[in-house]
Amino acid sequence: MISKLTPEECRKIVAVGLLTDGSVNIKACRKWVLQISYYNKDFSMHLAFQRLFKKGFKKDLRKVYRVGHVYATIYQLSSNGEIGDELKALSPTYNTDKTAISKPTINFLFNQRRIIKELAIRFAMSNDGGISITHPKNGTATVRLKFACTHPDLVTEWKELFNSLGIKMAIDKDNGVWSGLHGLVGNANSVRAFYGIGGFYPKTVKVCRGNFIGLAKNHVLSGSVEWMKDKNKPIDDVIRNLKWGYRDLNTGRQLFVSSILC
Question: Residue 62 and residue 250: Cα distance in Å, rounded?
Fold first, then answer.
């Protein structure tokens, strides 16, 4: 996938990673430096981010650091270098909480070719999204597509981007959050549409909590789509018994796994 992107397009997907699971700050470390940090519990996400960063900015890094309960890819660069200027040109800030002075944005994605919009959503969903499955005591299970984002401006822009690709999403409210917003939520049709653009990227990213912890997110997605074709069987059984295939990131070899191998 990355081989098909230009350096400029890679920089845009890097920005998506930083807006969802990263930060860009000026730090004092012997001298003032620009610190670019990307956080995730999944090593395949770090590998993808580093490959995007290398092609986009010509900076190679193969180290992942433990920071608390997550892992971090950290770049420390000149505070007045081109990389900082290029990132700022995409979004004036990468701070997405209530302390942000400027407004973060993904406006740089709207004029891109479709494959870039799709990859942006797939990568963002791998960072801050997932498949939500509820099991009512009486009735059929419900499958939803969920994306977490609490910043009001970003939520609106993400909703527009999802919808432009035929993935219909609604605002998901949460009064327990500073903005009153939890993110976006879509129904079964949204799940199918997300599956139709390729699902989560990279394909091996895993679920980190819940009933399907350890399974690839795409395994859960594929199983959910399979279950929606015939809802006579319990959805958990359909997902766990599904033989889901993916290509190894390093060798490109096709592999097949079941839930017992997670």
Answer: 14
